[in-house]
Amino acid sequence: AAGIFDRNGELLVLREDIGRHNAVDKILGHLFLKNRMPLEDCVLMVSGRASFEIIQKSLAGRVGIICAVSAPSSLAVDMAKESGQTLIGFLRERKFNVYSHKERISGI
Fold this sequence. Notes:
3 helices, 6-stranded mixed beta sheet, globular, alpha/beta, single chain
């Protein structure tokens, strides 16, 4: 599953698929058709790991922050650093790890 939220934490779109990267495609396609791009002020949340492909797809939509409930791959971390995206992993309740561009996260 994947969901995208606005800066106030309101859910904009939620999609599920057999693969998280396909759910991200569905979200980005939906928002593209609604003329809602770019998504720099949004947060993408994915179940499981944040893969390189998810970071790459998020970059196409210019998503500013990507969060995952599990670990990101090392390629995902490298790409997020290079592309200027904030990548968060192990997001559980009130704890998480920030892997790149922590300046977007207030209170750190």
